[in-house]
Amino acid sequence: MDNKIKFSDQPRKVKIIYAVVIGVLCVTAVVIGIVSAMNRTPDTPDDDPTANLPSEGDGNENEGGDNSQGGENEGENEEDKTPEKLTFTSPIVGEVVKGHSIDTPVFSDTLQEWRVHTGIDISADEGAEVRAAADGTVTRVYSDPFLGKSVEITHDGGIVSIYSNLASTDIAVKEGDAVKSGALVGYVGDTSLSELADEAHLHFAIKVGGVSVNPLDYLSEDSKKASLGITEI
Questions:
Q1: Of the candidates 70, 200, 62, 16, which has an alpha carbon nearest to the alpha carbon of residue 7?
Q2: Phi and psi (nearest 5°) for 228?
Q3: Distance between CA 186 and CA 166 in Å, rounded?
Q4: Coil, helix or strand at residue 103
C-alpha cells in the first residue's frame, strides 16, 4: 500500500498557504534582481577619450586675461560716451549790479524787504538785445508774477537758463524752438514788479536739476571778462 500523500490530496487551507509562500518568494526574487541592476555601475574604460577633458565651467588663465581686457575696454567706451561740459556765455553785455544770493537775503528797494535773489541782475538799457547763453530748446515763455516776462531754455544735463524782466512784446522765440548759443531771445524791458525800483536790467538765472545755482559759476571765463567786465576771477 502506497502511503505517499499527493499535493492534490492536501486540505484547501494548506494549498493556499503553499501558494502564498511561493508567491512571496517570487516577488522577493524579482525585487532583488531589480535593485541589483539599478545599483550596478558600469566600469569606465581606461582609454576613454573623454575622461580627462575639462568641464564646460572650467576656466583657464587665458580666458581670465581676455575677460579682464574686455572690462578695461568697456570702461574706456563708457568714458568716451561722457558728454562734454556745456559752455555758457553772458546773454547780454553789462555790469552785474545784484548777485545771486540764496543763503543770505538781499534788500529789495521795490518791496522794501529782505529777499533771496535767485539770479544775477545785469544792467542794460531797455530794448537791449538778450541772447541765448547756450544751445538748447525753449521750454517755456511765460509771465512770472514777480520777475515779469520770462523765457526758459533747457540745455543738456538738466540745466535750465531763465531770462526775465523782458519786454512783453517782441519775444523772438516760442516754446519748442531749438536755439543756438547767441540766438536772439528778446529785449530788456521793465516787467519785473519786484524790481521796478532798480535800474533797467536783465534778470538771468540758471537751475540745475530744479535747484537755483549761481550763473557766474557756469559762464566761461572769457565771457565774464568780455561781457560783464569781471577781471578778478
A1: 16
A2: -110, -5
A3: 7
A4: strand
Chain segment 85-134, per-residue pLDDT in tens: 678 999 999 999 999 998 888 888 887 788 889 999 999 999 999 999 99
The single-letter code of the amino acid at 35 is V
pLDDT at 20: 73
The string of DSSP letters for 153-192 reads: EEEGGGEEEEEEEE-SS-----TT-EE-TT-EEEEB-S--
Single-letter code of the amino acid located at 122? I
CA 120/CA 214 separation, integer angstroms: 8
Residues 6+ apart with CB under 8 A from 153: 132, 133, 134, 136, 137, 138, 139, 160, 161, 162, 163, 179, 185
For 218, half-sphere exposure in the C-beta direction (CA atoms, 13 angstrom radius) is 24
pTM: 0.64
